[in-house]
Amino acid sequence: MGQSKEMFIQMREQEIHEKMEQQEQSKVTDLINRLRAKEEVLSYSSIKNLTSPVNFMNYKLQDFKPKTESQLLGTACDLLLLTPEKFDNELVVIEKTPSAGNQENFANSLIEKVKTQNIIIDDNFIGSQVFIDTFNENYKRGKVESVENLIPYIKAKVSGKDCISKILKEEAEEITENLKKKEDFMTALENTTERQKRIDFEFLGWKFKCFLDTYSNGFFQDLKFASDCTPEKFEYDIRKFNYDVQFGLYSLAVQSIDGGIPEFEFLVFDRKGNYSILPVDYAYLKYGQKKVEFLVKCLDKMIKDNAFFNSYNFFNPRVKLCKPQWVKGFDFEIFE
């Protein structure tokens, strides 16, 4: 009896594995077809991953990826500062979020299946085949009831909402209340007339969508929550996180409706009570726009050459590592 049960489990796992492989291949084919037809809508998040063809494809094909705690805190602060009336529509305050490892993998996998297969989450969800199969894919033993407390989290994520703990929300409220007391910060914020403005536009034959934190005619801002918001450190963050691609793309979006290069500034803040108001000059905005142009042309080349899963050298074939100035030298005079 035990051997028969083990064989059944192995056959079931093989069946699930084969089905997942088929679904994955179908996703790859569909994406490539949309890219060739230029039907895929692009954004800052997608083009900043054009560091290599395979990085871009992996980003577009990846399963649902939850935000980090820092990203959630930043989102909560943005909502409280810009559109507090939309907070409950965007974030759900819950008691239980998945822990790293099996719980997180189980939740992410189930969220992806529910969204792609249009599964309804009802009172019988825990006994559904998709719930049981996903549990078995991520756990070798145990009972499905052990993850029942994750259903509110899964339901919220499927509905398009992010989840935040009560403690994190309270921290966001403390940070934003402090910022609201700073006259120069609030004056800068109130220089704009629209919040969370969406702009859809075309560039080099591709459709783009952008969401600007704030906007007025010929001017926009972006709020950033940072671990360290000193200007010198944030300059490093711009390079590290490709924020130049973001302001380059967003300035193209504003230019498409207003004409001319817009003005732009970052409003950066941290959890220690510090903040910086950092305008970006015309030359840096133009650089960002040229970088966006280069990345889009890299995408066109990837499609033209059918190089969807090539690596770094495809976009940058002439890289040579040169000796940096800071490497230690050798004092050969000691041998004389």
Topology record:
Elements: H1 2-36, H2 44-47, H3 53-61, H4 69-82, H5 87-90, E1 91-93, H6 102-116, H7 129-138, H8 151-158, E2 162-164, H9 166-180, H10 183-189, E3 194-203, E4 206-216, E5 219-225, H11 231-240, H12 243-258, E6 263-269, E7 275-280, H13 282-304
Description:
The chain contains 13 helices and seven strands. The protein has 336 residues and is of the alpha/beta class. It has a domain at 38-63 and 182-336: Lambda Exonuclease, Chain A (Alpha-Beta Complex), CATH 3.90.320.10. The strands form two sheets. A five-stranded mixed beta sheet has the order 3-4-5-6-7, with helices on both faces. Strands 1-2 form a two-stranded parallel sheet. Helix 4 (69-82) packs across helix 9. The chain is globular. The N and C termini lie far apart (82 Å). The mean pLDDT is 90.
Give a concise summary.
The chain is an alpha/beta fold.
Uncertain segments: none
Specify the CATH class of the domain at 38-63 and 182-336.
Alpha Beta
Helices and strands, in N-to-C order? HHHHHEHHHEHHEEEHHEEH
Radius of gyration: 24 Å
First and last CA, distance: 82 Å
Q: What is the overall pLDDT average?
A: 90
Helical coverage, percent range: 40-55%
Architecture per CATH nomenclature, i.e. the level-2 architecture of the domain at 38-63 and 182-336: Alpha-Beta Complex
Strand fraction equals 5-15%
Strand order in the sheet with the most strands: 3-4-5-6-7
Shape: globular
Please identify the structural class as seen in this structure. Answer: alpha/beta
CATH topology of the domain at 38-63 and 182-336: Lambda Exonuclease, Chain A
Oligomer classification: single chain
